[in-house]
Amino acid sequence: MNATNTVMRKTWTSQEKERFVQLYKIHRINFDQYVYHFENRTLSQIKSFYYNQKYNNRQLENQKQRNEDFQSSILKAYSQSFDSVSHIAGNLTDDADTIHYFCDL
């Protein structure tokens, strides 16, 4: 806290994050217990950290799923295009055989 009794914002350190994870394994969302382990954090900051991490993880999972869906649709479209090209190429080969047949007459 500073001279006006307001809490200064600061980024969570990696040690604080690790401590939070360990405490979460024990206390879950009983955040009142966390305050005793974070002397420079308020209850509000601890709750905010938890909910921000939860939100960010959910966003990350959603983005991962969207990427997988996109890759799947690209592969499906590529496969369908390849099948179409193969079919056309097969028809062209048949046409070329027909042309050669008539030319040989």
From TrEMBL:
SMART domains: SANT. It comes from the Eukaryota. Residues 8-56 form the Myb-like domain. InterPro entries: Homeodomain-like_sf, SANT/Myb. This is SANT/Myb domain.
